[in-house]
Design brief:
Layout: H1 3-7, E1 10-17, E2 22-29, H2 32-38, E3 43-45, H3 48-54, E4 61-63, H4 73-84, E5 98-104, E6 111-117, E7 123-130, E8 135-138, H5 164-173, E9 175-176
Parallel strand pairs: 2-4, 8-9
Antiparallel strand pairs: 1-2, 1-3, 5-6, 6-7, 7-8
């Protein structure tokens, strides 16, 4: 890296949070946006306490323009590179709140989930619409983990965007069942 490049970059603490843990790196980049545009499914951690603690961890460091990256981060770069040319890449970046509706059939109780997502990709509110017509609502206080759920640069989320009105209508009719997520 040329001295002028080094002077224009900042060292960012970057996390891939998968709920029960995460992978951490230091990434040198010109901006937080550049980090998020270069690596999929990561977030930039800003809290001073986390940054100070991370200084003691001996984390791998990478340059956003470097030809290689440490394990995990290299895969995040490859995933982002594959997404870059797809329709909808980056279409959700910069929005304050997102409202999504997505059907999940992976378990024994398929349902449609309507989710309000904050700027950091984490769920703020959620409505689960069961096949029998019941609607249960929940918030972060109900979930044991709330890692970033939506990568705003990923084009995979674009087809699931709904309007705030649709989300609020379901939120209003849904009931809160705190024992549901135990």
């Amino acid at each position: 890296m040329a001295p002028s490049d080094a002077a224009s970059k900042t060292r960012f603490l970057v996390l891939h949070d998968y709920g029960m843990g995460g992978a951490w790196w230091w990434v040198h980049a010109r901006s937080e946006q550049e980090v998020l545009e270069t690596f999929a499914d990561v977030e930039v951690v800003h809290t001073e306490a986390a940054r100070v603690e991370a200084e003691t961890w001996g984390l791998d460091e990478a340059d956003v323009d470097g030809p290689t990256a440490p394990p995990g981060l290299a895969e995040a770069r490859a995933k982002r590179d594959a997404q870059r040319g797809m329709p909808g890449f980056g279409a959700l970046a910069g929005r304050d709140l997102l409202y999504l509706s997505r059907r999940w059939d992976e378990d024994d109780d398929p349902a449609v989930y309507l989710v309000e997502v904050g700027p950091d990709g984490r769920r703020l509110r959620q409505v689960e619409l069961a096949e029998d017509g019941t609607a249960c609502r929940s918030t972060p206080e109900d979930w044991p983990f709330n890692p970033p759920w939506v990568d705003r640069y990923s084009p995979e989320w674009v087809p699931f965007v709904i309007g705030r009105e649709e989300f609020e209508a379901q939120w209003t009719r849904a009931v809160h069942d705190p024992g549901r997520w135990d």
